[in-house]
Amino acid sequence: MKVSRLPRTFDPPVKLTPKQANIYVWGFQPEARFRDAVCGRRFGKTFLGKAEMRRAARLAAEWGVSVEDEIWYGAPTFKQAKRVFWRRLKQAIPETWRAARPNETECSITLKSGHIMRVVGLDNYDNLRGSGLFFVLVDEWADCSWAAWEEVLRPMLSTCQYTIPQTGESRKGGHALRIGTPKGFNHCYDTYRDGQPGGEPDHKSWQYTSLQGGNVPAVELDAARRKMDPRTFRQEYEAGFENYAGVVYSTFDRAECHTSERIKPGEAIHIGVDFNVMKMAAVVYVVRDGLPLALDEFHSVRDTPDMIEKIKVRFSGHSVSVYPDASGQNTSSKNASESDLSLLKKAGFTVVVDSQNPGVKDRINAVNAMFLNT
Asked: Which residues form the Terminase large subunit gp17-like C-terminal domain (predicted)?
């Protein structure tokens, strides 16, 4: 089907900052189908989004993209998407490109090329199924549902096909830009890592602070730094990935404390066990050069006998030392006549346990010291 080109306009060109331009120039390249921009607050993400959506509309017409493949801006909720971007999308798309007036109810624009641009919320993502996608801009990516991407958006990008007229090159697959401020180490962190050197071949990612965006003066950032919690400041203004789950261990650093080592055949195993009913957990260590390395785990285990069975199956051929908490000397939740510790000993494990647990403060300080000295 022949797709009509959009009329030329004489609007002034969009002026991007250098950091925004770094992200923009990689758009619609095969080696950067999936772009991730992790940015501090007021970086200018929305302004960049206007330029991205406008370009997507033009390329869809020029490259003969099927009108079944739409162009979307998505945010965590429809209310947020409409408030943040609907007015800006109408500003970005010239009236000469539009086939009709924008649909204010659905927040959609039909172009003269036949393509449809939409502003959508990703909270009720099951309702979004149906069309294909040529381009999707996902805003506040860290706050969006991963399932919306994995179950809906990613498959919708898979069927798009088009041809670059200048070269005659045929391409398959739509494009995405996921952008936002980080929130811990969730899927935003994972997709950012995919775009770094050594990651996925069709991903590219950037990390920019608010200061690098050029929209927030240094004096304002200094004022915010003085008043805000350091972790929150690093996350919101410096686009840092901060671990808010488990902040008791303040010296933990995901990069410094990381290891890619694996358990070796026959190596002595040391397992720390936390007793519970239906939700037992354990961390598996080996000791090398005097340092413990956490290399495996068990979680959501039913009870002590179930934990014993799982350890035996996974670590057959290893000597196993178990370090339970002192509460295991009480009767087991599985068998009121027998303690958890006696069950572990009967299983043939070496059980290392004190008569009582050390003080909470002492435990925290010991772990923080080990993290600091890794």
From this structure: 271-371
Ranges of H-type helices in the chain: 18-24, 45-62, 78-81, 87-92, 146-147, 154-157, 187-194, 210-213, 218-227, 230-238, 304-314, 340-346, 360-372
Rounded Cα–Cα distance for residues 270 and 292 (Å) = 9
Domain range 269-372, its CATH number among 3.30.420.280, 3.40.50.720, 3.30.160.20, 3.40.50.12500: 3.30.420.280
Q: Enumerate the domain spans of the chain.
A: 18-218, 269-372
Task: Give the pLDDT confidence of 15-41 residue by residue, as tens digits.
Answer: 888 999 999 999 999 999 999 999 999
Q: Is 216 helix (H, G, I), strand (E, B) or coil?
A: coil
Q: Which CATH architecture has domain 18-218?
A: 3-Layer(aba) Sandwich (3.40)
**Interatomic CA distance for residues 216 and 224, integer angstroms:** 11
Confidence of residue 83 (pLDDT cuts 50, 70, 90): very high
The two structure tokens encoding residue 1 = 């089907």
